[in-house]
Amino acid sequence: MPNHRRWFVALAAAVLLIAGAVLLREARATATSRAGEEAGAGAQSATASDKSKGGSVWGANYFPNVPLVTHEGKTVRFFDDLIKDKVVAINFIYTTCPDACPMETARLLEVQQLLGEERMGKDVFFYSISIDPEHDTPEVLNKFVKDWQIGPGWTFLTGREEDIIQLRKKFGVYIEEIQGPDSRDHNLSLVIGNQSTGRWMKRSPFENAYVLAKQIGGELHNWKIASTVKRDYAKAPELRNDVSKGETLFRTRCEACHTIGGGDVVQLNARRIGPDLYKVTERRDRAWLERWLKAPDEMLAEKDPLAMALYARYNNVPMPNMQLNDVETQAILEHIEKESARVEKHVKMGHRRDPMAAIQAAAGAVVQQDHGGQQDHGDHHDHGDHAMHHD
Ligand code: HEC
How far is the CA of 277 from the centre of ligand 1 (A)? Predict the structure, then answer.
């Protein structure tokens, strides 16, 4: 390059630098309304609202671009980094939640496995935002992600309380009346949507995982990706009209975390957060079982030895208190018994493998009641039905 041209390039660069600095200062001046905001972010969200078609109503001018911190300690912007032009599932949780949120998390875990690695983090993103930022630091969230073995494409986030409340209000999942000063009661709050089309829906965590996966992976993508799973009408489940109360309860409240002798059959998506419950009514003392179903949180708090052993074995994820009454508890146990008997019949006819060996391998020493007190610490990753694939 001739000398004078080199000078010209250097000069142009210097001019750009100065211009950049001036712009930056201006941006800083206009961005003061939001404390903690970095320079330049204001300018960025202006372009975001122009670009995002959903933007006229559901764009950067609707969703605040508040900063949040991921479980990996990275600061991100809600609109620009998390939802802009993406298909997302968002829920608001807290890690010490004893009842509803673990169910939501477990359900999403199922959905995550259904969508698979080729979708998660590529064209579908999950976000769980803590509503208890004081307790749920990035470190706490990181441990949670590890304990639950949350896969890729799903980020846990924390931030400033007022920012998170603002987000909940924007999604319509903040109910003023139940927000006492100490209350963490929160509206069950799963929202799925496609920011660029502006299509958002509230969903119940009690929803079937397959339905959710279809809505997130198909409908919200305008079915752009053909299903890779070949389905056969001959294999379609029969329509049943004999679903008992216990089965309904089990499907909506328990199935996200438990199978009943299923690990063998379900194959795909078999990993669950909790133990397989095949013949659990024979393996456990009835009174223990009934109490566990009604108040697992109390039993863990009292350090019941069997409860503690299971808790350790299952990655320190506590079973939630599902607020079941006596009638519901009995109905569920009856369903587990019936379903176990059904599975056993198929085992005896040679139609399927006996799930017991796999359950023993997965739960180890805590399968038998009399070993309840035995501590079996494990950062095992072979727990649950996971291990059932291998034999
Ligand atoms: C969010 C996940 C989750 C949900 C939902 C859940 N459980 Fe559990 N469950 C667990 C975990 C994890 C354990 C192991 C103990 C622990 O870590 O607290 C467990 C343990 C159990 C056990 C003891 C198993 C054994 O080997 O003794 C039974 C029985 C049980 N759950 C039944 C149920 C029933 C019935 C429901 C629905 C009403 C249910 N669970 C809902 C996670 C869950």
Answer: 8
CA–centroid distance, 13 to ligand 1, in Å, is: 63
Do 356 and 366 touch, CB atoms closer than 8 A?
A: no
CB 391 within 8 A of CB 368: no
Structure-model confidence comparison of residues 363 and 355, the more confident one: 355
The answer for residues whose C-beta is within 8 angstroms of residue 146's C-beta and 6 or more apart is none
**Band (297; pLDDT cuts 50, 70, 90):** very high
Two tokens, residue 191: 């929202």
CA of 360 to the centre of ligand 1 (A): 16
Q: What is the spatial distance between Cα 210 and Cα 215, in angstroms, rounded to a whole number? A: 9
Cα–Cα distance measured from residue 205 to residue 215, given in angstroms and rounded to the nearest whole number: 13
Kindly give the number of the ligand 1 atom that is closest to the alpha carbon of 310. Answer: 15
pTM passes above 0.85: no
- Taking only the tens place, the pLDDT of each residue in 147-176 is 998 989 999 999 999 999 999 998 888 876
Pairwise CA distance, residues 360 & 261, whole Å: 12
Q: How far is the CA of 292 from the centre of ligand 1 (A)?
A: 8
Strand order in the sheet with 154-159: 75-77, 67-70, 154-159, 125-130, 87-93, 190-194, 199-203
Closest ligand 1 atom to residue 363 Cα is: 26
pLDDT digits (tens, 9 = 90+) for 203-247: 887 788 888 999 998 888 877 766 555 566 666 666 667 789 999
Which residues surround ligand 1 with Cβ inside 6 Å? 102-103, 106, 253-254, 256-258, 273-275, 277, 280, 284, 289, 292-293, 296, 310-311, 314, 317-320, 322, 324, 332, 363
Using CA atoms, how far residue 172 sits from 31, 59, 101, in Å, is: 26, 16, 17
Domains of the chain, earliest start first = 48-221 (3.40.30.10), 237-389 (1.10.760.10)
